[in-house]
Amino acid sequence: FDEQKDQVAVEQILRVVFLDPERPSPILEKLKRQLADADAALEARKKPAEDAGPKIIGEGLVIDEWKERRERYLAKQQGDVVVDSV
Fold this sequence. Notes:
elongated; 2 helices; 56% helix; Vesicle-associated protein 4-2-like
C-alpha cells in the first residue's frame, strides 16, 4: 500500500440539499453566513499587510542601498561644484 500512496485519490461524500431561496430556512442562513465569511477572508487576503514596524532587509541589500545613496550624494556634490565653478 505504501508504494501506491501517491496514486490514492481521496473521495469525499457530498450531501445534496434542495433549498427554496424564497422561503427562509436555517440551512440557507447557514450557507449565506459561510459565504459571507469566505468573502471576508478573501478580501482580507487581498489587502496588503499593514506596516507593523520597520521592514527587515537582507544585509547585502542594505549595503547596496547605502553605496547607491553615497554615489548619488557624491555625484550631486560634484555636479554642484561644476555649477559653482562656471
